[in-house]
Design brief:
Length: 414
């Protein structure tokens, strides 16, 4: 006889042994949302008043109270059914489904907009436990079914009333909920730490490079003085390379030993490129417009994703969306940050329609300020490289915490 599998999680707190039971959300909560706001118009929003939360105000389960909309008090009072309370769980019910948050704190009067739904659990269901259910496979499967069944998916109140999942006793729910609350707070603290370092970097980028129309920076390392010189990008390096794409339908052009970079390999705020997804063969190189570019070059996106750039410490090739600057005449660390700051300003004014971009000539004619003393260049470059290394290290810690949470969600739920 085959032994029936018991409904218990793989990992459990000591002292709990009973099986989990199937729970129907409608039996254990009050579920509210509304289809509209009686012709609420954008021009009715106010600077101060009750908060109105939308899905765009939630990131990784955290409500950004500094970004929420505000509505007149009478608008808030006309819909008492969606006045939020502490420990309510809210999520998007229209378009982009899910994105839940739990109101561990409530900053004054608050409500949700017409695209959101709230769940207020009853005493048999712990709010922190239920919030983690919305981060689990149960809710992901419900969303998958709704998304696959409609071009504009919706979660209706009936869907949530009939939403079922497994849960233990309220005492074990509380233990699990509190465990994940602490883990969520660690993740949130790590995200704030990263945001703080990134903000510090942006502030230093503003102060340690001359502003437009000026020739000296506001903040400088001790021992350096004098005006910076103005150079065109074409004078930063001695060689320039375009790119191309080997035929994707020819297998022996791909998966070789030569790195091939495309715009999606670069990120907006990361200028140090360690590895890329695609490689090409010698045949792919010889039978396409792409070029083998020397190590220690700067690859700049000029078409799709214009404004991104990366320093490449190894030989590589690129798609046609790049221009690479090689054999640099100035400190490479300084060059990559000076260009990053310059392109960040320029990308808002590039020409184009469906694909924004700039020509190679336009790029190379851009001008940037450079300190004449190479020691100052190196100090500035190393300073920002250290900040970037700190950001990457903190991001690695964040990724580790998120993976830890994923593993616990898998092991601590049935």
């Amino acid at each position: 006889m085959i032994e029936e599998k018991r409904l218990v999680p793989k990992r459990r707190f000591s002292g709990f042994e009973e099986e989990w039971n199937s729970l129907l959300l409608g039996n254990h909560s009050i579920i509210k949302g509304r289809l509209g706001w009686k012709n609420l118009r954008r021009e009715e929003y106010v600077n101060k008043g009750p908060s109105m939360i939308a899905g765009r105000h939630i990131q990784n389960g955290i409500i950004n109270w500094n970004e929420v909309d505000h509505i007149p008090l009478w608008r808030y009072e006309e819909s008492p059914e969606i006045m939020l309370e502490k420990n309510d769980v809210v999520f998007s019910k229209d378009g982009t489904l899910g994105n839940p948050a739990i109101l561990r704190e409530l900053k004054g009067k608050a409500t949700i907009n017409a695209t959101m739904m709230l769940v207020r659990v009853k005493k048999e269901l712990h709010p922190e436990f239920f919030y983690q259910i919305l981060n689990s496979k149960y809710f992901s499967e419900l969303i998958r079914l709704k998304v696959s069944g409609s071009s504009i998916p919706h979660l209706f109140q009936g869907d949530m009333n009939n939403f079922s999942f497994y849960g233990p006793s309220i005492q074990e729910q509380q233990k699990i909920g509190e465990f994940f609350k602490v883990l969520d707070e660690r993740i949130a603290n790590q995200e704030r730490k990263i945001a703080k370092v990134k903000a510090l970097k942006e502030a230093y980028l503003t102060e340690m490079f001359p502003q437009e129309g000026e020739t000296v920076p506001k903040r400088r390392f001790k021992g350096f003085e004098g005006e910076w010189e103005l150079l065109c990008l074409k004078d930063v390096g001695n060689s320039y390379y375009g790119g191309g794409t080997p035929r994707t339908s020819t297998p022996n052009y791909w998966n070789g030993h030569i790195p091939w970079i495309q715009s999606s390999d670069l990120k907006e705020d990361q200028v140090w490129v360690k590895q890329v997804k695609n490689t090409i063969t010698q045949d792919g190189l010889q039978n396409s417009a792409t070029k083998l570019i020397p190590a220690n070059s700067i690859a700049v996106v000029t078409r799709v994703g214009v404004g991104k750039l990366g320093f490449i410490p190894y030989e590589y090739t690129t798609s046609q969306d790049f221009l690479s600057i090689s054999n640099l005449n100035i400190s490479h660390k300084f060059a990559v940050y000076a260009m990053y700051k310059l392109l960040k300003r320029e990308k808002t004014s590039v020409q184009g329609t469906s694909i924004k971009g700039m020509t190679n000539e336009e790029l190379l004619s851009l001008k940037l300020h450079i300190p004449k003393d190479k020691n100052e260049q190196q100090k500035i470059g190393s300073f920002f490289k250290n900040l970037d290394d700190q950001i990457r290290a903190e991001e690695a810690k964040l990724e580790k915490l998120k993976k830890m949470k994923e593993a616990y969600l898998e092991e601590m739920f049935v």
